[in-house]
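User: I'm writing a tutorial on reading structure tokens. Could you give me a worked example: one chain, its sequence, then its tokens, then a sentence or two explaining what the tokens reveal?
Assistant: Sure. Here is the example chain.
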Amino acid sequence: MAPPAHRSQLRALAEAVFAELENHPEFRRNTLTYAVGLAIGAALAIERGKDLTDAESLRVLDTVHGFLTTGSDITRRTPEERTALYDTCLLITGLMAVFEADAQANGHAETRQAARQVATAVLTLFGFAAQAAR
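And here are its predicted structure tokens:
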């Protein structure tokens, strides 16, 4: 758990991430498919070193939607568990974006490494272990 002195900074970062992502005109707020798809898409972009095309992004969303509706136990999860997954995906996506943006803008190897480590963890968590191991 974060020390008390850092909690307000972490809360502010989390709130900024949520505001930025949820207020984007193309993002469907409170939709688990979009939150998971965004996390996977951001991780893939960091791993590949380039943004996904629109077609690739749509394919990720379609795949995530199919998995969540037919290939997972998400429908048996409580609303609180689904909300926690949504929130976690948005926060992790925001952290990856902040790390990667800092690395690109300032050339910081540490934040580039942090972005890649988080991206690898996300891809591994969602079953992309072969790609994440590259």
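What the tokens reveal: The first helix runs from residue 4 to 22. Helices lie at 4-22, 32-48, 54-71, 79-106, 109-125, 129-132.
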